[in-house]
Records
---
Amino acid sequence: MSTIHNLLAEYGESHQNELNKVIHWICVPLIFWSITALLWAVKLFTFQDIEVNLCMVILLLVWLYYIKLSPSLSLGLLLFALACLGVNHWIESNFSTQTLVISAIIIFIISWIFQFYGHKVEGKKPSFLKDLQFLLIGPAWLMHFIYNRLGIKW
């Protein structure tokens, strides 16, 4: 069994309760987005009229991690990450960086409250308390269900 299979199986052990699963389907993407939004606000430099921010750099590193785990899953996760970047750009362009950051902080906090509630209902601690790597496995865990539904090998 490959590392991705082991990681998804281990992550899944603490995500059996239906309510906890529903909470994760909502909150994991929101937490992922909120982190990208907070990192988006940290501007690093401009290169040929493109403003490079910390989010772009970190997402590149995260994507490389996902490629190592599963090249196939990494493509779906890349699409989701690009969608997050698009949302960040849209909010910042149509409102402000401050609106982006405040929204991200609020969503981050509320989503984590729900996540911990889901694990209380589940009766098991969140996986990341055992290994921080599981903070990156949550999105892959959800993506593998989408792939399975679509009949895509991961």
---
Amino acid sequence: MQADILFSSQAAEKVRQLISAEGNDGLKLRVFVAGGGCSGFSYGFTFDEDVASDDAVVERSGVTLLVDPLSYQYLLGSEIDYVEDLQGAQFVVNNPNASSTCGCGNSFAI
């Protein structure tokens, strides 16, 4: 399924670098939402070689982003980005569905 989730060029480039460092061109970035975190839900990122038949798939610059169906409903309309600033370097989710977030940016409420 094609996703209504954006994958920034900065995030795609960082994923490409990480995959290259791992030496496994079959890796894809999986973004998921889990219960917990100080605001109720938290974002997670992992590499995965397998694409499930019901995964949402976003491709950018030859890199693939995967989202499972449960997480998709919370990430619809979001942008997955990669930022480097004074707080460090990390993948971030700019989620218009989040009613509040915590200071770390990895936890949110709907």
